[in-house]
Write a structure and sequence with these properties.
This protein is of the alpha+beta class. The protein is built from 2 helices and 6 strands; from the N terminus they run αββββαββ. Strands 1, 2, 3, 4, 5 and 6 form a 6-stranded mixed sheet that branches. The longest helix has 15 residues. The radius of gyration is 18 Å and the shape is elongated.
């Protein structure tokens, strides 16, 4: 589904181009991604946590969009985008929340997306001995229209 990949790439591009996040490495979680071991700098792995597609009203009728009178039909997709923050042990786990807040600020202040941001959430910081890093699992929920004609 190319819409999903477009959303992930838009998020990654916005985050990579924010000067406040210049010391963070951003990676898409496809196909499989591994962070450095031991972790040297903060990493954020961007992926898909869940998808929910609902039928739009009026049999998916969206509108007459262009000058040629083409009608568009589609559905509303709701996507849970994972933003898993990996922080080197030496930086401390609380720094995960600093990165989370900067990500939130960057994405909420961007007006260039083809999707609507519904909200952000996170869990508690955990520690993974295998990668010697603190991890904050966080999620951004977005909505996007999926055109099917």
């Amino acid at each position: 589904m190319s819409e999903i990949l477009n959303i992930l790439n838009e998020v990654k591009y916005a985050l990579e181009n924010d000067s406040e996040l210049s010391l963070v490495e951003f990676t898409l979680s496809f196909p499989n991604v591994c962070v450095e071991n031991p972790l040297i700098k903060p990493n954020v792995v961007i992926g898909v946590k869940g998808i929910n597609i609902n039928s739009a009203s009026f049999d998916g009728y969206l509108s007459t969009e262009d000058n040629d009178g083409n009608e568009y039909f589609g559905n509303l997709g709701k996507f849970d985008i994972s933003l898993d923050i990996y922080m080197p042990e030496k930086n401390g786990g609380i720094k995960c929340f600093n990165i989370f807040y900067k990500i939130y600020k960057t994405l909420k202040n961007s007006n260039n997306f083809d999707f609507n941001i519904i909200g952000f959430s996170s869990k508690e910081v955990t520690y993974d001995q295998k990668v010697e890093a603190f991890i904050l699992k966080s999620t951004m929920t977005v909505e996007s229209v999926l055109i099917f004609n």
